[in-house]
């Protein structure tokens, strides 16, 4: 399968777009990885060209989340502990997003996984966030795209949680708008431990915005989504497809309470979260039931996708209407983590439909 080859035309998607679920460390250009790896003499499993890097990292056959996350172990050493590389990745992501008509995106990453401060490295998690912010500021200036950071806790790494909370509390002025919890190759179990759960409760008290990876992988299914909403006070859900199987809770949280779901269609099939049967994809039901969802790429480094290739899949394969795809942009604007005044501006831009 290919995420980007499903239709040549992108004209019908020529409206302002918002992406809420993008892993910044999963959005590194293959060409940048190749160039930096060469310079640093890091072996990317023998890759001798950008094409080789692509072949090595991209998943184009339905697999599982562990396989997708294993790719991060191969390429993260190329950018971690390197402020200039992180700034560059942030800047280039703004350029890539502007090319496909994204006007605002929230990029998530674990500041801890992008440095080795615990091993005495000179870059700290705070330095990581500041480097990325510098890239976003330059990107915003040069490409007119607004970008903000969501800081991830990592499943199984409970000891990062309190520092993530401190950083999210103190670094709002360098573009931090919220927190998340994601997985990594060492585990993507959605039953998050007490430090992470309590940290999310405290974040809610402090008014820090919250999203949680739930209902994507593992054996917890819809339970992890309900837990994220009820116990972790999550305002949005990363993925969340599995809630659809649980009629009562789906009706309660997705249909009635209108919790926002950050859907990533291509990723959902590649990670095995959803079976490869596009017309039966949960998004079709979500459209019919008026669920509050938006559409994102998740990890372009691993899926070779863009928001436009995702919209194409949603329309041509899953069967969503163009109206629904536009509504997804408004849903995203209304559910984004920007402060109220900036959010109003973004909502207005989406309503106007002009760049
Ligand atoms: O689809 C996903 N589900 C769970 N975790 C993910 C997914 N994509 C990426 N990451 C994880 O999130 C970390 C921070 O950005 C990444 O380093 C990766 O391990």
Automatic annotation (TrEMBL):
Keyword Plastid carried by entry: no
| InterPro entries referenced in this protein's UniProt entry, alphabetically | A/AMP_deam_AS (IPR006650), A_deaminase_dom (IPR001365), Ado/ade_deaminase (IPR006330), Metal_Hydrolase (IPR032466)
| Membrane topology, record value | Peripheral membrane protein
GO cellular component entries: cytosol; external side of plasma membrane
Annotated Adenosine deaminase domain residues: 16-351
> What is its cofactor?
Zn(2+)
User: Which Gene3D superfamilies does the UniProt record give?
Assistant: Metal-dependent hydrolases (3.20.20.140)
Q: What family, per the record? A: Belongs to the metallo-dependent hydrolases superfamily. Adenosine and AMP deaminases family.
Recorded protein name is Adenosine deaminase
Q: Which organism is it from?
A: Panagrolaimus superbus
